[in-house]
Every structure is written in C-alpha cells, then in structure tokens.
C-alpha cells in the first residue's frame, strides 16, 4: 500500500504539472495574435550585433561596395569611374554619383529587374550618350537623380513608375511635347538651374501631371508665370528668373499651394488678392521691385519681402478685417533692405496676434548709405530660452554675408518639406 500511495501521489503531481503547462501556454502566439504579457527587452551594449542574412550570396561589382547590412544597395560613388559597371539583378538602389561617367549604355542594366533608385548626379552625361529606352525598361524605377550633368535635353522616354526626377544644374533648354507624357505617378520634378525660357510652355508640358506636388523651375530664363500647372501642386519654386507680373486669379487653379518661392525676380506690382490661398504657409518675394504690400491669407505663417522698394507697410491692406474666430497665423516677417522710415503700425498685432518676429535690419532709405530703424528686430511672446536662441540666431545672421543669403535662397531643395 505504501508503494501504491507513493505512485498515486507522483501521478497526481505529474497531472498537475501537465495541466499547469497547458494553462500557461499562450495559443495566441501560434496564430499570430498579441500575447497577453511580454518579457521586457533590455538593450545590452555588449551583445554583438549581427547583420541580417540575405537568402543568397550578395553579388557585387568589383568597383563598388555592397554592405552586408543593406544587401539591396550598391555604392559606386566617388570612385573616379568612367563607365557604369554591370549591375547584379537583385540591386534596388544604385549610387553612382560623383564620378566621371559620360554615357549610360543599356548593357549594364540588362539583368536589372527590381531597381527603384538610381543616382547619377555629378557626372558628365550628355543626352545623346544615353541609350534610347534604357530607363524606360526599368519598370520599378521610382527615383532618378541626374542633376549636375551636361544634359542638353530632357531625357526620355522614362518609366511610368517614376515619382521623383531631379534634373537641376544641366543645360536643358527645351521640353519636347511628349517629354512628360506617360508619367502619371510623378510627384517631384526638379528643373532648377537650366536654360528654360517661356517657349517651353507652348506645349503645356505639365498640364497632365495629375499627381505633381513639387515643381522647381528656379534659376532659368522665365519671364512669365508658367501656365496650366496641375491643381495638385503644393510647392512651386520660381526664384531667380525674370518674371515681372503675376496674372490676376493665377492661383485659383492651384488651391493646394503650401510654399511659393519667387525671390530674385522683377515683380513690381501684385494684384490685391493674388495670394488668397487656403493652404499657403510660406511666401518668398524678396529681392524684387515691390512698392506696396498685398493681402495676407489666414494660413500664411512666414513672409519674406526683403530687398524691395516698400516705403510704407499698410496693415489695412494686408488685413482688411478682424475675425476673432479665424485669426491669421502669421508669425514671422522679414522686411529688411526696403525704404521704411518707421516700424510697422501696432495695429498689426491686432490683425496678426501670433506674430513673433519682425526683422527690420538695415533700410535703403537713401541711395548713398543704408540706415537702421530704432528696432532692427522686434520679438514678442518669447520664453527666455526662445529669446536667447533668437538673439544667437540674430548674431549669426549679422555675421553672414549677402552671398551666403543668396546661396541659401537660390535653390529650392528637392527634398523641401
């Protein structure tokens, strides 16, 4: 009986252990659900970090570098290459910038199937040295960098998958009628620093780009506003051209504009409601020939009208009525290098209750020498920390040269947000 009783006790203990294990098992784990509790993970800096393993040996051109941690990328930049090496079929990101490449033949891309990004910027490529259709065959290509080359024409055909095309700093002077056809997914087109003039608009090249959100045409030879831009546009860069007039109601077709850059043009007069846009946040009109201010929409936050010929800022024109339920969002105004002799009327703080900074700087009151208002920078509603930061920034601003400002403002960055 003693032996049997001991066996019974052992049997009961075994059954209890099995039952507890059954109760403690989380069936959610097996079916992909979220567990009820998780053991917290604590980072151990002494634990060796392993690069993710690729399911097959990573093939790489001998001239390039394929990091094990990023097996889909091939880095061939800054290597004084004169030709494009053969590209393995698995590569999705190809970096060839800052080389001496002059041609884009089809050969190296023969086996490429899934490539999504190609960076060929800062090379010596000319259009006639690009094999016809070499890019169009890359049906998964999303981003193509060709800025800082020697392109005389727009490179086409291009794949319909393309979303971002960067062609700044080339010698492109015309856009053929069919150059931008078949690009329904294009969101960003950068054509800054080329040789484009008003003749490129005859064929309405941008009208069918229904998803275009950012168009950069800065540093060209434009004299008029580009017509027939798609209503999807949100960022428009036209600085450093020779535009002298904005047609009335021009922006009615562009209700989604967030940022507009038109500094360094020949603007003299702006129709009153030109910028009455519901989403406009940032407006650059510095370095023009403006004599009067204009209506400021409720949404605008940053206004740059420096280096113009404004003698008096009429706040009533900027803000005809007060609406306490829809206060204007303006927080920053830059008005240096105008012809102001007195600060902006205090009525501005009723119209723009959120305004924090008005940068007066030096004013071009006389042709012989600039003068400075008693209040070079006006700030309000700043915490001590913000005030100190603003003072530091102002000191840095005073140390910068005019060339620094022009270099900063002259190019609308393709990744602008």
Radius of gyration: 30 Å
- CATH names the topology of the largest domain as Leucine-rich repeat, LRR (right-handed beta-alpha superhelix)
End-to-end separation in angstroms reads 85 Å
**Beta strands, count:** 16
The biggest sheet, with number of strands, parallel, antiparallel or mixed sense and barrel status, is: 14 strands, mixed
Structural class category: little secondary structure
Number of helices in the DSSP assignment: 6
DSSP strand content: 5-15%
Tertiary shape: elongated
Fraction of helical residues: 10-25%
User: How many independent structural domains?
Assistant: 2
Series of H and E elements? HHEEEEEEEEEEEHEHEEEEHH
Mean pLDDT: 83
Describe the structure.
- By secondary structure, the chain is low in regular secondary structure.
- The protein folds into two domains: 73-243, Leucine-rich repeat, LRR (right-handed beta-alpha superhelix) (Alpha-Beta Horseshoe), CATH 3.80.10.10; 248-402, Alpha-Beta Horseshoe (Leucine-rich repeat, LRR (right-handed beta-alpha superhelix)), CATH 3.80.10.10.
- 14% of the residues lie in helices and 11% in strands.
- It is built from six helices and 16 strands.
- It has helices spanning 2-24, 27-30, 315-318, 348-351, 384-399, 402-409; strands at residues 73-75, 93-95, 117-119, 143-145, 164-166, 188-190, 214-216, 235-237, 259-261, 282-284, 302-304, 332-334, 357-359, 362-363, 371-372, 377-379.
- The strands form two sheets. Strands 1-2-3-4-5-6-7-8-9-10-11-12-13-16 form a 14-stranded mixed β-sheet, with no helix packed on it. A two-stranded antiparallel ribbon has the order 14-15.
- The protein is elongated, with a radius of gyration of 30 Å.
- It starts with a helix and ends in an 8-residue tail after the last helix.
- 31% of the residues are buried.
- Residues 15-53 and 397-417 have low confidence and may be disordered.
- InterPro entries: Leu-rich_rpt, Leu-rich_rpt_typical-subtyp, LRR_dom_sf, LRRNT, SLRP.
- Its main location: secreted.
- Residues 1-20 form the signal peptide.
- Residues 59-93 form the LRRNT domain.
- It is found in: Secreted, Extracellular space, Extracellular matrix.
